[in-house]
Design brief:
Blueprint lengths: L11 E7 L6 H9 L6 E8 L5 H11 L3 E6 L4 H14 L4 E4 L5 E2 L6 H10 L3 E9 L5 E5 L4 E4 L13 E4 H6 L12 H11 L3 E13 L9 H22 L6 H28 L4 H10 L3 H4 L8 H12 L1 H22 L3 H7 L2 E2 L11
Parallel strand pairs: 1-2, 1-4, 2-3, 6-10
Antiparallel strand pairs: 4-9, 5-10, 6-7, 6-9, 7-11, 8-10
Helix pairs in contact: 6-7, 7-8, 8-12, 11-12
Length: 367
């Protein structure tokens, strides 16, 4: 925990990376600007958009001095967020938050009272409740946390969504923490894990921070997508964490965190098998990808698993690979049919998302 008594800093800087996000970008920006507490700045990082995203951001920036716009060639969301962090460090903000260009902050999140409480806690990071909603933001599901305070080794390293935290800005500079450029999946959760590892104090607040807009187009749809996702992005994200853990001085803590990263990699190998089976990969292709992944050393190392379900799944796959492959293939086919039937069904959406989001976010007439 860093002792910082300066009162002349902007309390919060919010980074919104965008790539071809013209449909929801204006709504995302104004959901932040319309908060009760005005002690914040927003930096929109345009990642080489080919639509009107940059024009929308510039238009808003021209009418509100709290909005800044950066533009770069398309390099991916990690590079965009890193540029946003560097910009906010120059602006000397106290905390940094992140919001995706298709999500929104809840109406009454950033109040003057919350700002005062955040500053009084002087935490390295703060976590908040958040909601997941359908694309129209009419129905939702609440992921609520209770008010808690954690120190050192007791700080939970898992749980919550990356954007449901705010992060002490100086920590990015002191520990040289950046997002892993080139990794497109798990880049946010792996950074969250690394950041929380070096925190000395984290506070949980019950306040509802934002609404995650569920996007059906973001999932993997082809055999190639699944293999690429796990072997070129998800698992390498945790390799990146392992390499980055050199910033942890305490040897025991560092070794413990490395073991947890290995656990994540094993678990995602199981997830790959499930997803690949459901998306049409043959058993031969799955075995080939596993053998070519260079992860053979994980196969027989069962010292640490994240849960018994993953361990049992892996043992079953080793002993009865065809049965496990066929079982997941059938499940995937049934799930796909049900999803297509129910995707636009109002009753099904209300069952999946039982909360009326109007209680948390009121769509206003935008300028």
């Amino acid at each position: 925990m860093i002792d910082n008594a300066q009162n002349d800093k902007v309390c919060l800087g919010v980074i919104i990376p965008v790539y071809n996000g013209e449909m929801f970008l204006k709504e995302a920006i104004y959901s932040v600007l319309n908060q009760e507490c005005k002690d914040l700045i927003v930096v929109v990082v345009n990642d080489g958009s080919k639509d009107n995203s940059l024009s929308i951001a510039n238009q808003i920036a021209s009418s509100d001095e709290r909005v800044f716009v950066l533009s770069q060639e398309n390099q991916g969301v990690s590079a965009a967020r890193n540029n946003g962090i560097a910009f906010l460090l120059e602006k000397n903000v106290e905390y940094i938050g992140f919001l995706d260009a298709d999500d929104v902050w809840c109406d009454d999140f950033y109040t003057n009272d919350l700002k005062a409480e955040i500053l009084s806690k002087n935490s390295d990071a703060c976590r908040f409740s958040y909601l997941e909603g359908n694309e129209e933001l009419t129905f939702g599901l609440l992921y609520e946390v209770e008010t808690e305070e954690y120190y050192g080794q007791d700080i939970p390293l898992y749980g919550g969504y990356f954007c449901s935290y705010i992060y002490r800005a100086e920590m990015f500079s002191i520990y040289s923490i950046q997002f892993p450029v080139g990794i497109k999946l798990q880049e946010d959760l792996s950074l969250l894990f690394l950041f929380l590892t070096v925190c000395q104090k984290v506070n949980y607040f019950k306040n509802n921070m934002f609404i995650y807009r569920s996007n059906s187009t973001s999932a993997c749809h082809s055999k190639k997508d699944v293999a690429d996702a796990y072997f070129n992005h998800v698992i390498p994200a945790w390799d990146w964490v392992i390499k980055s853990l050199v910033i942890v001085q305490d040897k025991k803590t560092r070794e413990d965190r490395i073991s947890q990263c290995m656990t994540m990699k094993k678990t995602f190998l199981c997830e790959y098998i499930r997803e690949a089976s459901r998306n049409g990969e043959s058993l031969k292709e799955i075995k080939k990808n596993l053998n070519e992944s260079g992860l053979e050393y994980l196969y027989d190392d069962f010292d640490i698993w994240i849960d018994d379900e993953s361990l049992n799944f892996w043992n079953d796959f080793k002993s009865k690979p065809f049965k496990i492959w066929m079982k997941n293939k059938i499940y995937g086919f049934i799930f796909l049919i049900i999803r297509k039937i129910l995707r636009n069904n109002r009753y099904f959406q209300m069952k999946k998302y039982p909360i009326d989001l109007l209680a948390y976010y009121t769509k206003q007439q935008l300028p």
